[in-house]
Design brief:
Length: about 110
């Protein structure tokens, strides 16, 4: 069931406004995270799930700081990324009311 829900997420519908130069990097990381979540067993612990999301947020931090990309993560991207990440988190069983992304994100 979680696999179907994860696969139904359309990142372009969630991140409707994205700088052209950063878009492929953001979508690649979102897709990488989705694939990793799909491969997890249904009974993956919250601790392990949070560790996976932490790694992904750290990857977004690196993208934001990458000087070879002209534009960083701005307000529109930030809101869309948080929405996409929290949707995936809810699908795999993380508490949707807990703002766990803020623990790791710099953007």
């Amino acid at each position: 069931m979680k696999n179907n829900e994860l696969n139904k997420l359309e990142f372009k519908e969630i991140l409707t406004i994205v700088y052209e130069d950063i878009e492929p990097h953001l979508f690649a990381e979102l897709s990488r995270l989705r694939k990793e979540l799909i491969l997890l067993p249904e009974n993956t612990s919250e601790k392990d799930l949070l560790s996976i999301f932490e790694r992904s947020v750290i990857n977004f931090n690196k993208i934001d700081l990458d000087e070879t990309i002209e534009n960083g993560i701005d307000t529109e991207e930030r809101e869309g990324l948080c929405e996409a990440l929290y949707r995936m988190g809810t699908i795999v069983g993380l508490d949707e009311n807990r703002e766990y992304l803020d623990e790791w994100r710099d953007w």
